[in-house]
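Ticket closed. Logging final result for Glutamate dehydrogenase.
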Amino acid sequence: MRDELLRNPVFAMAATQFDGVADFLGLNDELRERTKWPKRLITVTVPIRHDDGTVRVYFGHRVQHHLTRGPVKGGLRYHPRVDLGEVAALAMWMNWKCALMDLPFGGGKGGITCDPRTMSVGELERITRRYTMEMIPFIGEDIDIMAPDMGTNEQTMAWMTDTYSTHAGRLVPGIVTGKPLSLQGSAGRTQATGHGVAFLACRALNKLNLPIDGATAVVQGFGNVGAHAAYALSNSKVKILGISDVTGAIWNDGGIDTRKLRDHVAAHGSIQGFAEAEPIDPAALLCQPCDILVPAATDMVITGENAPLLKCKVLAEGANGPTTPEADAVLNERGDIFVIPDILCNAGGVTVSYFEWVQNLQRFQWTEREVLTKLETMLESAFSRVLHFSEKHKLPHRTAAQALAIKTVADVKAQRGLFP
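Final structure:
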């Protein structure tokens, strides 16, 4: 199983990052092994009947990296490229993210290898409900709490809530987060990750003594994270020069009106054809001059090849694992780009998911203002701790963030000991 995981390039990247931090921390072999490898790797078959009457079997995965500090927390994605290694890497990163934000969770991640864009609403509901039933022995509001991710949304979470609650014989709202407000979801959850990305990007500009009003940004990805990051940056008077999605990329030297683009995407399904911007090559988009670059799509898009060509001042990682170790080496050597690492930059989603979980357990709802204020307070605290640790030990921001997180998990494992 180890070799199988390490053959996956995303997990191999996460493992390389871990090994480097473990060396810095001086973890002994026992703690290193116990902290690195996931506790549970679950794969199930998910057979569903399609609208045309045919039956197809899909594969679904869930990885629970550690339950040492509490139940695991993490998203569920639907995508054609989902596999166990990718899910395991994302669960590992989520573990460090929760530890860095001081949330009482371990890291989890799930996914089904499917293409939701080709499936009807009925087919999506059936695949979601069947996957939930297959996972019932392994999930619970004190065991594993899922949330939306790539290809899933609050409707997916509503179906999961209903399936689990029907099995339990009572409403269990804390089984997932990212639910509709009518099902005891949390105000502020939808925009939480993107809001956090924008908040930290502006804090980075503050640290660099650069003005926010009139700053420029490029956003790769116009899904939930990228779109809300773009909206929030625009609200802070940052000019959005370029945006991409799976269909292509667009550019406007005068700035893109993100609200108009949102309406265009709602009407046409993609950014293609937006009248107030010109097409640009998606690869070239990443290397355009700007103050803030937000990779908010998929992993491994900042590579050893394009890292020397970046012309941003702040790299705000909205996606998980967007920067490869080879690119990190280039960026560290350059020293002229302020990197906000993924486990900090996109932690807004899991932090507000934590708030939603707490509200569900308390049966008490917070206002959007309360949620976003608490989120910014926690992000500011983590941001300050990472910068202080980085400066104290002369480490890159990513290494500093991961070192703080991994040490937190390793210390708890050492304190709990090893059950015979």
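The chain has a mean pLDDT of 95. No further action required.
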